[in-house]
């Protein structure tokens, strides 16, 4: 989340869930500015926040000695801090990890957001404006997809708003899988973080224009219809786009039938049935099914699960010979897409000026750490056990920290997350950056050689 026009994160604390998490040692749960100071600043915590890895990611290889490195690159990146009482510090910039570290330690921000890379150092934008020859514009940013669990409120019956449980979380898992598989095909690196109720899928690709961003975002747009109604999917054309067809066959169909149908009890009440029947364009057909279900509420399907039975009946009816209206044949697919396809906040993806919540920062309402998710193991990710600040501090207390250690995070639940970020995201990213930097530099050398030979 963390967009510019969204100054306060709208997440409400899920107190019940919070109380379930027990700190291993006596550190009371909940968010507390003092915990934040320990997390970011205290010598006791010994760098729980991975300043070095975090900054290295945003350098994209430009902090090296290679003559092709752009030394001004990372200094043109905006960092935004939100302090207590919603005091905003926009357009911060840092030239080194230690500069960033001292600033975070000094200010202990409630929120840390990452902005775009600008044409000039954002902290000096006014000076540049006065000199008159430099325009201050965003030039690069990661491609970001925001998925909010609250956008699924019309297809989940267990929770609403910011709340999430293991019955509705799989909706997010499916979105992660669809995005991850499709974006990996483009040979770019994806980092996925969970913080509060938002999953941010961050694609570390730079140099994309707003138009290119919009084109990629549109790739995932199959919805039409109102914001609050169940978003009816319209799969235009007689043949599914290959990407959609693959998503359907590989992921969505089995997820809907084996998971969502039962977990959310999609046919267990008249109201729930109606929601699905509303997606069928033929009214007569829908009311026929409804009559049938009202008639045999208990009798003929008492032994079988009512959800599985009714779904089979609906599919049979839609696919049977006499119901071959042009819209009906595609209807099963459309229902499944409506319930399961990733619901993305397109505006976040399309423009460069939205802010991205930094991984490993702390959610100011839940006190949970914004942790990366491994897309290859996203089925195992449990949002209700994401470490909280008090848990981490409790673990440190219990483990007996060393004041001079750089790696006290190894003694906490952060260990898996930091190791994953380092080895599965950062290292492959830097390797790719190095190769790209070298080939761009060699191409430039070759070009100037050719010019000289003339
Ligand atoms: Zn739920």
Which labels suit this protein?
2 domains; DNA primase, PRIM domain; alpha+beta; 9 strands; 454 residues; five-stranded antiparallel beta sheet; binds zinc ion; globular; 42% helix
Plain-language structure description:
The protein is an alpha+beta fold. It has 2 domains: 15-149 and 186-220 and 345-443, DNA primase, PRIM domain (Alpha-Beta Complex); 242-340, no CATH class. The chain is 42% helix and 10% strand. The chain has 15 helices and 9 strands. The strands form 2 sheets. Strands 1, 2, 3, 4 and 8 form a 5-stranded antiparallel sheet that branches. The protein has a 4-stranded antiparallel sheet with strand order 5-7-6-9. Strand 6 and strand 7 form a beta hairpin. The longest helix is centred in the C-terminal third of the chain and has 40 residues, at 414-453. The termini are far apart. The model is unreliable at 1-24 and 223-230 (pLDDT under 50). Bound molecules: zinc ion. Zinc ion binds at residues 156, 158-159, 164-165, 167-168. It comes from Paspalum notatum var. saurae.
How are the secondary structure elements laid out?
Blueprint: H1 15-20, H2 33-40, H3 51-59, E1 77-83, E2 87-92, H4 97-107, E3 111-118, H5 125-131, E4 138-140, E5 143-148, H6 169-184, E6 190-195, E7 198-203, H7 210-219, H8 242-263, H9 270-277, H10 283-295, H11 306-319, H12 331-340, H13 346-350, E8 356-357, E9 371-373, H14 389-399, H15 414-453
Antiparallel strand pairs: 1-2, 1-3, 3-4, 3-8, 5-7, 6-7, 6-9
Helix pairs in contact: 3-4, 6-8, 8-12, 9-10
Zinc ion (ZN) binds next to loops.
């Amino acid at each position: 989340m963390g967009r510019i026009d969204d100054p306060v994160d709208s997440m409400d604390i899920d107190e019940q869930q919070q109380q379930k998490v027990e700190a291993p040692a006596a550190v009371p749960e909940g968010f507390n500015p003092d915990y934040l100071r320990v997390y970011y600043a205290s010598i006791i915590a010994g760098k729980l926040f991975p300043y070095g890895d975090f900054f290295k990611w945003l350098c994209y290889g430009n902090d090296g000695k290679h003559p092709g490195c752009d030394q001004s690159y990372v200094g043109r990146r905006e960092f935004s801090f939100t302090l207590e009482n919603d005091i905003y510090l926009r357009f911060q910039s840092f030239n080194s990890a230690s500069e960033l570290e001292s600033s975070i330690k000094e200010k202990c921000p409630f929120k840390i957001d990452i902005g775009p890379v600008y044409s000039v150092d954002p902290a000096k934008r006014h000076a540049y404006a006065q000199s008159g020859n430099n325009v201050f514009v965003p030039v690069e940013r990661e491609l970001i997809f925001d998925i909010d669990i609250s956008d699924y409120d019309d297809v989940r019956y267990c929770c609403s708003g910011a709340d999430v449980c293991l019955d509705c979380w799989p909706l997010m898992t499916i979105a992660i899988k669809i995005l991850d598989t499709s974006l990996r095909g483009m040979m770019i690196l994806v980092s996925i973080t969970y913080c509060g109720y938002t999953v941010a899928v961050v694609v570390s690709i730079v140099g994309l224009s707003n138009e290119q961003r919009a084109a990629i975002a549109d790739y995932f747009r199959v919805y039409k219809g109102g914001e609050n109604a169940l978003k009816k999917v319209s799969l235009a054309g007689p043949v599914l786009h290959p990407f959609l067809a693959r998503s359907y066959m590989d992921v969505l169909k089995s997820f809907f039938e084996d998971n969502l149908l039962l977990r959310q009890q999609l046919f267990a009440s008249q109201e729930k049935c109606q929601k699905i029947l509303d997606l069928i364009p033929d009214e007569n057909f829908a009311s026929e099914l409804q009559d049938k279900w009202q008639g045999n509420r208990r009798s003929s399907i008492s032994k079988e699960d009512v959800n599985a039975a009714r779904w089979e009946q609906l599919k049979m009816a839609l696919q049977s010979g006499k119901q071959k209206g042009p819209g009906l044949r595609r209807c099963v697919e459309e229902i499944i897409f409506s319930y399961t396809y990733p619901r993305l906040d397109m505006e976040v993806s399309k423009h460069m000026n939205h802010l991205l919540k930094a991984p490993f920062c702390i959610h100011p309402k839940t006190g949970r750490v914004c942790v990366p998710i491994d897309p290859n193991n996203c089925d195992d990710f449990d949002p209700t056990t994401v470490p909280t600040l008090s848990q981490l501090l409790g673990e440190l207390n219990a483990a007996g920290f060393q004041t001079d250690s750089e790696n006290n995070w190894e003694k906490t639940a952060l260990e898996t997350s930091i190791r994953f970020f380092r080895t599965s995201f950062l290292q492959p990213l830097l390797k790719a950056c190095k190769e790209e930097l070298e080939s761009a530099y060699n191409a430039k050398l070759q070009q100037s050689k050719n010019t000289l030979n003339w």
